[in-house]
Amino acid sequence: MLDKKFVRQIKNAVSEYNEARREIIRLSDNIRNAAKRAIFAMHRDDLSGADQLLAEALKDAALVQKQIINNQKLGKEGSFHSALEEYVEAQLYRDFLAGKTMSKVQVLDIEISYDTYLGGLSDVVGELQRRQVRLATVGDLDGVKKIRDIIEEIIGELLEMDLTGYLRNKFDQAKNSYRRAEEVLYEMSVRRS
Predict the structure, then answer these.
(1) pTM
(2) Same CATH topology for 1-102 and 113-193?
(3) What is the rounded distance in angstroms from the CA atom of residue 126 to the CA atom of residue 132?
(4) CB 43 within 8 Å of CB 134
(5) Alpha-carbon 160 to chain mean position
(6) Residues of the chain above pLDDT 70, percent
(7) pLDDT for 192 beyond 80
(8) CATH number for the 1-102 domain, one of 1.20.58.2140, 1.10.10.10, 3.20.20.60, 3.40.50.2300?
């Protein structure tokens, strides 16, 4: 004979978890979207708009944090880590634009894993390279050099970590952005000669 009362308890627990998981995915999409829009705002030099979008992302992260307190398993949801990685990328880029050191990114009391941070750090290289192209179009050779130098510094640090899997793919994309950053600087230097 099957203990139906116990099975109903399991069914209820599974149902509650799935409902909470769907909410985490929805909130994660909001976080990721706000971070992407913040990056786009930064590319348009709309720093106050970017700051507002990053604040929006943190509000949704706070809602996720409340859910995680009730069920730690929800904190391991892939969509949430993807959203955090996008937020890290946006915050690192914002720090760069503000002239700050690109360092640890704090998202409330949520622990940012090394993988999440390294993914965001790898991705910010592409944003920096886009900024470099923009500076090249207005003839800012010093700005172009400064960005190439910070990209080179990031790539040098990542290179020492012998990344594998997903992070290796991110690193390879960052290396391609570094190559393009070198080309932009070279082209600009040749044209000035």
Answers:
(1) 0.93
(2) yes
(3) 10
(4) yes
(5) 21
(6) 99
(7) no
(8) 1.20.58.2140
Q: How many residues are recorded in the chain?
A: 193
Query: What is the C-alpha to C-alpha distance for residues 100 and 54, in angstroms, rounded to an integer?
Result: 17
- Single-letter residue type at 102: M
Residue-range domain boundaries for the chain: 1-102, 113-193
Class of domain 113-193: mainly alpha
Here the tokens at position 176 are: 């391609």
Handedness of CA 62, 66, 72, 73 (dihedral sign): negative
With a CB cutoff of 8 Å and minimum separation 6, the contacts of 38 are 49, 50, 51, 53, 54, 57, 90, 94
Q: Which residue's entry shows tokens 């892939």?
A: 78
Tell me what pLDDT residue 42 has.
98
* pLDDT tens-digit series, residues 121-177: 999 999 999 999 999 999 999 999 999 999 999 999 999 999 999 999 999 999 999
Please state, in angstroms and rounded to a whole number, the distance separating the CA atoms of residues 10 and 24: 21
pLDDT digits 0-9 by tens, 74-109: 888 899 999 999 999 999 999 999 999 999 999 888
Q: Are residues 87 and 120 in contact, defined by beta-carbon separation less than 8 angstroms?
A: yes
